[in-house]
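Why do we care about 3D structure at all? Because function follows from shape, and shape follows, mostly, from sequence. That is the central idea of this module. The next example makes it concrete: a single protein chain, its amino acid sequence, and then its structure expressed as tokens.
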Amino acid sequence: MPSLLTSLLLSLPLLGNPARAGQVTVPPPGASEVALLLCAGDGCPDRLFWVTNDPAFGAEPVMVVESLLADVQAGASDEVLSARFAESLERARLAAVESRTPQAQAALDDAEQALQAWHGGPDNAALFAFWYLRGVVMEQIVPGSGAGAFRRAAATAWNRSVAPPAGLEAWTVPYYAAMRALLDEGTGTLVIDPGGGTPSYTLDGVPVGKAPIKVEVFPDRHRLTAVDGPWVEPWVAEVNVHPGRLTVTRAQFNDEDSESWLVQSLYLAVTTHQLDPAVADLLERWADRHQIQSLHLLRLDVADAPPQDEISLAAGEGLPTFTRTEAWYQPRLHRFTAGP
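And the structure:
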């Protein structure tokens, strides 16, 4: 089976430059396969011109890793996912008010999918509303089954000032019952230790600053996120806090910036046919957004690096020589194949 991909690509300062001939920054509408180009060596920016004009590609769109990563961060982070979460949450509220339980449940499932993909998240009030609505819908299906979701809503609120979603105030009775049970357990202590970098943390939609951090919260699971600059993959975790106990955590970012981390992971994956789960999730989200069914993974290794000054290039001399190996990956299936 053809294989592979390589380390480092274009340096970050090139991100704002226009696409070279044959290269795209966003897949065109209707494209089902995209070639993901990886290239090692100092001459990659020059070689890219010749590679992306290779007739062997035909009409296949060609992307580089930094473009894919920038597209993921721009499109699948705050703007798209926050809008999807908010819209789904409102649909769920309206359906719950009208006791259209299946529709409310489907809308909440859609909101949860957006939340899981979101490297960030809603503010505290919206996160509280999500869990409150989960409790309401579960109570509508089976009375008494919403206690766990109402407990999560109360834990998310941290005893802050929150209000039930409009039209669903009647469900405060089971909510307050779950909250009283939570209060009887007492609080737990969450400690966030300093790690590499200086990330900014958000706990259940509430900014809590930079580590070291120590905060008393209600026991249960809490959504903790950390951001440490635009080129490092944001960190998201569910942290379980127990009553009367100390829970210590910290963000665990990748050692390298997102671009080189992604390229290195793909390099190894073509050899092992296994992807880091975080990389697989990133590619799946990107492919789902653009309806991409297959990634044509193309690795270029420099075989000969002759001088490439402007005069020799204009004369058609000193063209790059490289070896090329290929593989295909289906992001939605998380599967490598022998061909497109």
